[in-house]
Amino acid sequence: MTNADPHELQKFSDLAHRWWDPNAEFKPLHELNPVRLAWIDAHAHLAGKRVLDIGCGGGILSESMAGLGAQVKGIDLSTQALGVADLHSLESGVSVEYEEIAAEALAAREPGTYDAVTCMEMLEHVPDPSAIVAACATLVKPGGWVFFSTLNRNVKSYLFAVIGAEYIAQMLPKGTHDYARFIRPSELAGFVRAAGLHSHDIKGITYNPLSKHFGLSDDTSVNYLFACRRGA
């Protein structure tokens, strides 16, 4: 069975046509993207690398990595989101290969293929995040990088990411996140170790409501980025 929640897929598919509107529901992704892109590039040096973006959605991160000179493939299980991604790639002239396929299925087909694998804002939306981590470990080349971003599970993250972002600030549509699926860094580190990856770096993502800018910090209590590598 596919490691996907039909309700979660439908939720993002219904919004797919608004993916590239910088003032619509995905505005936070547009604002966050330069921060996470710079962090990924600082580790993996994307130019000339073969990169896989798992759960690529409409292609915001995929296109930006291709713009830095990477050869990028984006995969997702939302037909609508991939349609938007393909169309935007044609309009922007930034070449990205997209495919509707599960990470686990691609891992069985293309093991050890990619210099870097990204899986951003996705683990908290699937039934079995450990299986996605394992697929990432299979897909990346020896010595390659794997990057995750997700949400910590604690009272503060519930107040900020659910109550604050969805209901008070209305930065995200209500129901975007299911708090029960948030993942503590220690849990993600366990998935990473079990998959044979080595933890390398973790950074928190902060948001300043006055400047409306995202940044990186050592505070991983809400959103966080996690970098790891496969042994050579």
TrEMBL record:
One GO BP annotation of this record: methylation
EC number: 2.1.1.222, 2.1.1.64
Known catalytic reactions: a 3-demethylubiquinol + S-adenosyl-L-methionine = a ubiquinol + S-adenosyl-L-homocysteine + H(+); a 3-(all-trans-polyprenyl)benzene-1,2-diol + S-adenosyl-L-methionine = a 2-methoxy-6-(all-trans-polyprenyl)phenol + S-adenosyl-L-homocysteine + H(+)
Keywords associated with the record: Methyltransferase, S-adenosyl-L-methionine, Transferase, Ubiquinone biosynthesis
UniProt entry tagged with the keyword Hydrolase: no
Protein's pathway: Cofactor biosynthesis; ubiquinone biosynthesis
Signal sequence extent: none
UniProt-listed Pfam families: Methyltransf_23
One function term, GO molecular function aspect: 2-polyprenyl-6-hydroxyphenol methylase activity
Record keyword Transferase present: yes
Residues that coordinate or bind S-adenosyl-L-methionine: 36, 55, 76, 120
Coiled-coil segments on the chain, per record: none
Role according to the record: O-methyltransferase that catalyzes the 2 O-methylation steps in the ubiquinone biosynthetic pathway.
Assigned protein family: Belongs to the methyltransferase superfamily. UbiG/COQ3 family.
PANTHER family: METHYLTRANSFERASE, UBIQUINONE BIOSYNTHESIS O-METHYLTRANSFERASE, MITOCHONDRIAL
Name of protein: Ubiquinone biosynthesis O-methyltransferase
